[in-house]
């Protein structure tokens, strides 16, 4: 089984009780750090020190603001879990700069105990990472800075989930997501967003997300990264193009039991 805990599903600017892009796979793999992942994940019972692996989709602010907090919360990981491995961090080209920024904010040179032992690895489209029973394939996202999509596959069952990160539609996305059980796709742009703005921000409309789901023949589409005031309209626009779609819900947990078999546990 692959489990996905939805920690944050909001657009880039969050209000009270909200969190932006942030998910935990199988209890120990974090995708993006949102504004405040280390606090938000505790609302679902996950401790920051449970996280052994971090995948960053891209280094826009709403995806990495929580990085210093995650470091600070994880500085206790080997006291809480004596057998805890070093924190492994994977991501795109901007990742080292963001890591250095987080370390500088925490004044790691003066207070090295505030940052856990960690290893940073740049990963590129076409590569994969093996994490025990889960293989993580790396895809490309089309965004104004170097960005990744990730596909998690349980090697024993073949069940899979794809996270697009922030991206505009591009032709390789449905190929990367082909046949996945669940496609977690951003839907930041509304259908009436001006073309000039869409070219600048390179996000997806709900119709774009539905198009990727349809071309990929995904089992289920989950829309995330949507401003709260747009959520219902976004859902309706996507639904007219792909039938099995729903909005990501903060605090919900998705279990992929195997190919074509999913179940949701709502908060
Ligand atoms: Zn974003
Ligand atoms: Zn972005």
Protein described:
This protein has 267 residues and is an alpha/beta fold. The protein has a single domain, classed as Metallo-beta-lactamase, Chain A (4-Layer Sandwich). The strands form two sheets. Strands 6-5-4-3-2-1-14-15 form an eight-stranded mixed sheet, with helices on one face. It has a seven-stranded mixed sheet with strand order 7-8-9-10-11-12-13. The longest helix is centred in the middle third of the chain and has 11 residues. The model has no long low-confidence stretch (mean pLDDT 96). The structure holds zinc ion (2 copies). One zinc ion binds next to helix 2. One zinc ion binds next to loops.
Helices and strands, with pairings:
Layout: E1 2-8, E2 22-25, E3 29-31, H1 37-40, E4 53-55, H2 61-64, H3 67-74, H4 77-80, E5 87-91, H5 95-105, E6 118-122, E7 128-131, E8 134-140, E9 148-154, E10 160-163, H6 172-176, E11 182-186, H7 195-201, H8 206-216, E12 220-224, H9 231-239, E13 245-247, E14 253-258, E15 261-265
Parallel strand pairs: 3-4, 4-5, 5-6, 10-11, 11-12, 12-13
Antiparallel strand pairs: 1-2, 1-14, 2-3, 7-8, 8-9, 9-10, 14-15
List keywords for this structure.
single chain; 267 residues; alpha/beta; Metallo-beta-lactamase, Chain A; 8-stranded mixed β-sheet; 15 strands; binds zinc ion
